[in-house]
Specification:
The complex is a heterodimer of chains A (261) and B (198). Chain A is of the alpha+beta class and 261 residues long. Helices cover 30% and strands 20% of the residues of chain A. In chain A, strands 2, 3, 6, 7 and 8 form a five-stranded antiparallel β-sheet that branches. The longest helix of chain A has 25 residues. Chain B has a single domain, classed as Transmembrane di-heme cytochromes, Chain C (Fumarate Reductase Cytochrome B subunit, Up-down Bundle), CATH 1.20.950.20. Helix content of chain B is 70%, strand content 0%. Chain B is globular and about 50 Å long. Classes of the chains: A alpha+beta (261), B mainly alpha (198). The interface between A and B is medium-sized, with 38 and 30 residues.
């Protein structure tokens, strides 16, 4: 919140050079660029509505509160037994689109031999997992629709370990509220326990029957056909179970947290 | 409820009309910004006339204003049905009268002596916009929660079909608004009636 306010102040004439330098330092990072983009466009909204920056903030706060109410409403609407539609393999979108907060030439190369899945928080057995160990667990595959918040969808085929099976195996506290993910591409997000236990939520290790290619999140992504694309983290390195709201990369910038479909 | 001189539009109607207008403006302008993030029909809507600044901002406006549109719309329809106003004001609609009134309107000869009485073109237009709004809410529900409403999703022809229905129903609503505003400009008394009731 503090950072956003500083950045927004760039567009206001007469601000100190120190603040400007501070802000430019932030812009060097990709996530900060997104903040700036938003700050500038919110300036445009100010012109449109004729609101002062003060009421601008209160409108933003009100919209954020409604977004939290929408998290709650979606939690109520979510039926843990209702399955997302599945499709024949002939309907798979080829090529399946690449999408991330960075461009495709910035995809991280992660070494599957040294990679370990780390567990923390309200989990009984927190020993790290190797890729081979995960591949030895029961696998399940699905041909489902990936729905992007940007207004497109595509059908793909993912295979991997049912997340509910894994969570029970490691003794996760299934009464906890949130499950958080930290990723090898510095992405992070979190989901509700009900969705984590949904039968179609899988720790995807394959795409189209092959090991997950780097562009789709090698070595592991969480695949949930009941949630929008940005809720499906790639290159997962750590999973934690918690009752403290963990937020997420896009969620902290204004995307709806539940992000369900 | 006699349609006397003093009460062309009852208070509840005026309130729901203006709340609906606010919701529709917010939804359309933020919806245009949401559309712009993929432009699935191949053209962009000028950013300057959209609301929200960027995609997340537009989505926040859209998913806030939807509650107003929905709650207000349900209230409007319920009162309309239970007071009998729906049948009294909007029916019957006879094709011959619609054509006659449309011809008169185009020649600028449509009578507006009694604003409490809707002519056939008005009846058709207002009923159309009610049905169109219901379609917007239903297709929006499928776009928002496609997994949770499987029957509705299949009725609309699937997830991607719902996106197109949502867009074209919006376009139809905008066309209605343009005609509606032109008619108000031609007969300014109607604006007064919608503000103060008479």
């Amino acid at each position: 919140m503090i950072q956003r306010l500083k950045l927004r102040d760039i567009v206001i004439p007469g601000e100190g050079a120190a603040m400007l330098a501070d802000a430019i330092g932030h812009i060097a990072q990709p996530s900060r660029r997104a903040f700036l983009k938003r700050s500038l466009t919110l300036g445009g909204l100010t012109l449109l509505t004729g609101c002062s920056t003060g009421s601008q903030d209160s409108i933003e706060a009100a919209l954020a509160r409604i977004s939290r109410f929408n998290d709650f409403a979606q939690g109520l609407l979510f039926d843990p037994n209702l399955l997302a539609p599945t499709y024949p393999e002939s309907m798979i979108t080829d090529p399946f689109p690449f999408n991330a907060y960075y461009s495709e030439d910035e995809v991280r190369d992660i070494d599957g031999d040294t990679w370990r899945l780390e567990l923390s928080g309200l989990i009984a057995d927190r020993k790290p997992w190797t890729l081979e160990q995960l591949r030895a667990l029961p696998q399940q595959s699905q041909v489902t629709r990936h729905i992007c918040v940007e207004g497109w969808s595509a059908i793909g085929k993912w295979g991997g370990v049912p997340f509910a099976h894994f969570l029970r195996l490691v003794g996760a506290d299934l009464g906890a509220k949130y499950i958080g993910f930290k990723c090898g591409d510095d992405y992070f997000t979190s989901i509700d326990m009900a969705t984590a236990l949904h039968p179609q939520t899988i720790m995807a290790l394959t795409y189209n029957g092959q090991p997950l290619p780097p562009r789709y999140g090698f070595p592991m992504k969480l695949r949930m056909p009941t949630k929008l694309g940005y809720k499906n983290p790639k290159h997962i390195q750590a999973i934690f179970v918690t009752n403290t709201y963990p937020g997420g990369y896009w969620e902290d910038q204004g995307y709806n947290w539940f992000g369900g479909s | 409820m006699p349609a006397g001189e003093r009460n062309i539009h009852p208070l509840w109607l005026r309130i729901t009309h203006w709340l609906n207008a606010i919701a529709v403006v917010l939804l359309v302008l933020s919806g245009w910004r949401i559309y712009d993030s993929t432009e699935f029909l191949g053209f962009a809507i000028p950013r300057g006339i959209t609301l929200g600044g960027w995609l997340a901002g537009a989505l926040q406006w859209h998913f806030a204003a939807m509650w107003l549109l929905f709650a207000n719309g349900v209230l409007y329809l319920l009162i309309n049905v239970f007071t009998g106003r729906l049948w009294r004001q909007f029916f019957p609609i006879r094709p011959r009268e619609v054509l006659q009134d449309l011809g008169a309107a185009l020649r600028g000869k449509l009578a507006h002596e009694d604003l409490s009485h809707y002519n056939s073109v008005q009846r058709l237009a207002y009923l159309f916009v009610m049905v169109d709004s219901v379609l917007l809410v239903l297709s929006g529900l499928v776009l928002w929660k496609s997994v949770q409403f499987p029957i509705l999703r299949e009725l609309l022809g699937g997830y991607e079909a719902a996106r197109r229905i949502h867009f074209f129903a919006m376009a139809a609503l905008c066309a209605f608004i343009v005609v509606h505003l032109v008619m108000v400009a031609l007969v300014p008394r109607t604006l007064l009636a919608m503000l103060r009731g008479r």
